[in-house]
Design goal:
With about 160 residues, the protein is mostly helical. Helix content is about 50%, strand content about 10%.
Amino acid sequence: MVEDNEIDQIVVTELLKFAGINYTVANHGQEALDIMQTHSFDAVLMDMQMPVMGGIEDTTYIRQNPAFVDLPVIALTAGVTQEERERCIACGMNDDITKPVNSEAVISCLVHWINLNRQHKMSANKLECKQPKSISRTKLAHYWGQRYRRVGQEHRSRSISFAN
């Protein structure tokens, strides 16, 4: 995941953890490119607006590397306009997820693109793919209700109060 916002990092990484998905966090696009030189990934969740290097520029560099041509890149964006979606697709992103993130949308999007990518690779190698672990909506809703309360409490406890 490439995301500069700490709260968004916490929310998404907790979701990924709960779903049993391994992840690595990069705080901006350049850091992501550096990490990708030494690690392999099944997909990238990419924030659009970050310091140092944003999502559009980062994805453009990713697509220039032949090793990452088929790597699913999914935009994390607060912008939901058709123009924003077109910019995502034009630079080589595969899909977009709007923020604040919906747990079901994140999991279903990742499962879709990772499976599609694996099926494409396996059809060339004649291998079979395991299906991902299924998570019920009720279980996700219960988990996220508890997690959002905990994240809010942690954030409030770290906030600074100013006395008059």
